[in-house]
Amino acid sequence: MMLINGEPNRQISPADRGLAYGDGFFTTAKVVRGKVEFWRDHVERLMLASKKFAIELPSLLTLFSEVQTAIAGVELGCLKILITRGEGGRGYSGAGCENPTRIISVTPWPAQYQLWQRSGIALAPCQYQLGLNPQLAGYKTLNRLDQVLIKQELESLDVDDVIVCDINGYVVESSAANVFWFEQGTLYTPDLSQAGVNGVMRKQVLRCAEQLEIPVNIVKFKLDQLAQVDSMFITNTLMGLVPIKQFQQRVLTDFSLVQRLQQEIKDD
Amino acid sequence: MMLINGEPNRQISPADRGLAYGDGFFTTAKVVRGKVEFWRDHVERLMLASKKFAIELPSLLTLFSEVQTAIAGVELGCLKILITRGEGGRGYSGAGCENPTRIISVTPWPAQYQLWQRSGIALAPCQYQLGLNPQLAGYKTLNRLDQVLIKQELESLDVDDVIVCDINGYVVESSAANVFWFEQGTLYTPDLSQAGVNGVMRKQVLRCAEQLEIPVNIVKFKLDQLAQVDSMFITNTLMGLVPIKQFQQRVLTDFSLVQRLQQEIKDD
């Protein structure tokens, strides 16, 4: 199912600036029984990006109504909302682009995530290092070539995901998820001021930890400092919270804290 | 005039990875009397990017033939060749994308560049700082949100272009051109190992300087070090070599060296 500017269209203009320059942003949400999980957080993310890039969103009523049309009857699915500055002329100027493009699409939910949540996955370090970009860090923009190249590397390895560092060697995220770890009862996650995406599920985890009075530390950590952790997990809105059962040579068996967070984090 | 995969089409698929992730690259060339200037350099640039991102190019015969169709009868124009990984599914994996998209388009040449080449332009420093990304630096990828935001800033200023630095304060480029300066007979241009686009015209300038036995220095220079320069110019394939007549409060009047390069750099 796909709606482009509200129409069941399957074509966009080659002059769309989303294609020419990655001039836009997106969010991906889990749909469960015809309902978008954490809808308010996704809207908040879209509004922050809209302000940052000066690309106007449709009214929330329009957006909600089109999303409802797209997800009607969907038992389990991935909703993607992609916004671009719309059609433009040659060159970087977005002046005069008055009609942003919105693409709302629904695809199947990856079934392996259920097993991942229960049994955990194996991670390896990634050789590819993320650039530093404090201007774009945190946002889920259409500039995702780094992630494409990271995924290429992951597909050459015999693991489920990779831990990606930035060019200074600081841990940032996995190939498509935020990363957390516990050490002596404190929850850690990387600082995202220079690189990485500030995920909707990451926010939920931090909110939940606060409610449970779990101490949280947002840090710049190098890869070798992860050797000491008691447990790890990765998160995004589609996979939820996925424990790590193996990282490099180390086998991690204590899933108790991540399981507690898995139970607590629910969409209201 | 536009050809998509060889057809005079005006539509692309919303599942094209160029749109979803900026998963592709492009080059822009000047067309003069039905001929592409510096064609071999543009092909070399496309081949380097093809190898880097593992996106197959069409055969050079196909590419050349489609370009000839697109530029037939064009007196002065801008040719853009844009290549993406083609249609794909959800997620960063490009596995199975066997049919890259190629978009060949021709638009009018911006007429002001003729005046710019002769009379020079005024530059100001840019507040927006480029991120560092040694993996993508040099390539003209479809990830150009930085340039979109830089252009937004430029449009709020009363100058022709801006000098952009990276987050460490090193001069990289202008909003859409490479930058050069002369000091005591030596030609300087920024190192592009961390940020910036390695332009086709930049290569021509370096080649020409070598032929003329002008000493060249590829440097990491901070903005305040530009206060001492004797003359400056910016370059891309569309504007050619454009002298700078004013930078910040300083008026630069000696165009002799850039004029010499302008005369020497010709497509064979």
UniProtKB/TrEMBL annotation, chains A, B:
UniProt keyword Phosphoprotein present: no
Entry keyword set: Folate biosynthesis, Lyase, Pyridoxal phosphate
EC top class, as a word: lyase
InterPro entries: Aminodeoxychorismate_lyase_IV, Aminotrans_IV, Aminotrans_IV_CS, Aminotransferase-like, BCAT-like_C, BCAT-like_N, Class-IV_PLP-Dep_Aminotrnsfr
Pfam families named in the record: Aminotran_4
A GO molecular-function annotation: 4-amino-4-deoxychorismate lyase activity
Keyword match Nucleotide-binding: no
Catalytic activity: 4-amino-4-deoxychorismate = 4-aminobenzoate + pyruvate + H(+)
The protein's Enzyme Commission number: 4.1.3.38
Gene3D superfamilies, alphabetized: 3.30.470.10, D-amino Acid Aminotransferase, subunit A, domain 2
N-terminal signal peptide: none
Pathway(s) per entry: Cofactor biosynthesis; tetrahydrofolate biosynthesis; 4-aminobenzoate from chorismate: step 2/2
Cofactor(s) named in the record: pyridoxal 5'-phosphate
Oligomeric form and interacting partners: Homodimer.
Protein family membership: Belongs to the class-IV pyridoxal-phosphate-dependent aminotransferase family.
Name of the featured protein: Aminodeoxychorismate lyase
The encoding gene: pabC
